[in-house]
Write a structure and sequence with these properties.
Bound molecules: adenosine-5'-triphosphate, magnesium ion
Oligomer: single chain
Strand content: 5-15%
CATH topology of the largest domain: Rossmann fold
Number of domains: 4
Shape: globular
Number of helices: 19
Length: 452
């Protein structure tokens, strides 16, 4: 049974109608006292709760009720309803243990989807036998360490739901691979998987990229363009490097994620989409929330579930398997014989620090195979190719700036740095000691396009 708590008659009756039509048993009460009576005796499976009771404008009453409910039934998922203007209240509620929140006026389809997700993810109540272990299509994910196995178990459990997932971990730990695995193992597998690198989209192009535009919507809009959200409809959108999004774009993103509705630039008709959101970052979003550089409401919205990928140095037992895997794949791709590793080679590989994680191991294996061109590789072969990363890793400076204007020097420096960091704008901005926004302004000013 789903319990609705709201002091508004119309809200109660329309929610009851919607839930019953969707096949749920539901019950509605008007306030905290009646709510606690039901919570005590009837054990609802899910609670849909208004935060703004008319008695208190602060929302204090709603928060208190939530805390009581959680004390009494910690496992029952609670979905909060707040007005868009009082989203801060929803955030406080999430901290107090709510499962999810939705803003009024709500969108029925989006709300039903969140209810379904909450029910799927809530632990089975005592007495219900646990379902059969889910089978996972691993794709090319290699490894048998505890850390990776735990990650894959979580993927198997949450992939079939519509829950938003945040994949965290250092650079090169396989976040993108995991995001793809979530999609491949979901009910959306036959629908599109659309990857967006938020680190590579400038603030000025964000809306046009994500939501699309009509021809003539702005000066450079020479033709209609379909946005990423529309391309991902019915499927999954992968928001990579979400920590790179600046605050103004964060608000715009939050809006779509709340309502699954957006507007194409130059066309004011709202469009509906059904998109599952998987995000990834190597930034510490919690810290960014504390520093007010990442919105807390967006953080909760993208982060119903967190999957953290351990660094490679925390799962060294995977190293021999991974090395084998990369060697075999390279041999396959080039039609060559497979390369073997001596025992001391595997020992050497297993002991490296890997600040670049699996990507670093992959590059090292591939480079060593190419350069050494031997059937069996020794520790010495790897040692010769190993390039320990220096702290800071700033690119070398040339002294050849004589005769150039300041602008030319700046342009040149940016181009070189782009080259050194293979176009990774976060790293380029960091190396140049400027913000990403400042970097974008300069890229625009000098007409540098990052795709080339
Ligand atoms: N468990 C694994 N098995 C096989 N290959 C892997 C595994 N994990 C990562 N890789 C490979 O390592 C490389 C880096 O992985 P991926 O791009 O997913 O990392 P990432 O965490 O998204 O990195 P970044 O933060 O730099 O974007 C890819 O080539 C990927 O295929
Ligand atoms: Mg990645």
């Amino acid at each position: 049974m789903i319990l609705i708590i709201d002091d508004d008659n119309i809200v109660r009756s329309s929610l009851l109608f919607m839930l019953k039509r969707a096949g749920y048993e539901a019950k509605a009460v008007t306030g905290p006292r009646e709510a606690m009576d039901v919570v005590r005796v009837e054990a609802p499976e899910l609670i849909l709760m208004d935060m703004n009771f008319s008695l208190s404008t602060s929302g204090e009453e709603g928060l208190t009720l939530l805390k009581q409910v959680k004390l009494f039934r910690p496992d029952v998922p609670v979905i909060l309803m707040t007005a868009w203007g009082s989203i801060q209240l929803a955030v406080q509620g999430m901290r107090a243990g709510a499962f999810d929140f939705i803003t009024k006026p709500w969108n029925n389809a989006a709300l039903l989807q969140r209810i379904e997700t909450a029910l799927q993810l809530s632990p089975p109540s005592a007495g219900t036998p646990a379902g059969p272990a889910l089978k996972l299509d691993r794709g090319h994910i290699v490894g048998s360490s505890k850390g990776l196995t735990a990650v894959l178990d979580t993927v198997a459990r949450i992939a079939p739901t519509n829950a938003s997932v945040l994949v965290t971990g250092e650079s090169g730990t396989g976040k993108e691979l995991i995001a793809e695995a979530i999609h491949r193992n979901s009910r959306r597998a036959s629908q599109p998987f659309v990857k967006v690198n938020l680190g590579g989209i400038s603030q000025s192009l964000f809306e046009s990229e994500m939501f699309g535009h009509k021809k003539g919507a702005f000066t450079d809009a020479v033709a209609d363009r379909t946005g990423r959200f529309e391309l991902a409809d019915q499927g999954t959108i992968f928001l990579d490097e979400i920590g790179d999004l600046d605050l103004s774009c964060q608000v715009k993103l939050l809006r779509v994620l709340q309502d699954q509705t957006f507007e194409v630039l130059g066309d004011s008709r709202p469009r509906k989409v059904n998109v599952r959101v998987v995000s990834a970052t190597n930034a510490d979003l919690r810290r960014m929330v504390g520093e007010h550089t990442f919105r807390e409401d967006l953080f909760y919205r993208i982060n119903l579930i967190t999957i953290h990928l351990p660094a490679l140095r925390e799962r060294r037992e995977d190293i021999p398997l991974l090395a084998r895997h990369f060697a075999d794949r390279q041999a396959e791709a080039n039609g060559l014989r497979r390369t073997d590793f001596s025992a001391d080679a595997l020992q050497f590989l297993s002991a490296l620090p890997y600040p670049g994680n699996i990507r670093e191991l992959k590059n090292l294996v591939e480079r060593t195979i190419l350069v050494s061109n031997k059937p069996v590789l020794d520790a010495a072969d790897f040692e010769a190719q190993y390039q320990p990363r220096e702290a800071g890793g700033s690119p070398e400076k040339t002294g050849a700036f004589a005769g150039m204007t300041l602008n030319e020097i700046e342009r040149q420096t940016i181009l070189q740095t782009l080259d050194s960091y293979k176009g990774n704008l976060t790293q380029v901005a960091a190396a140049l000691g400027i913000s990403r926004a400042a970097l974008y302004r300069r890229l625009e000013k000098y007409g540098i396009s990052v795709n080339d």
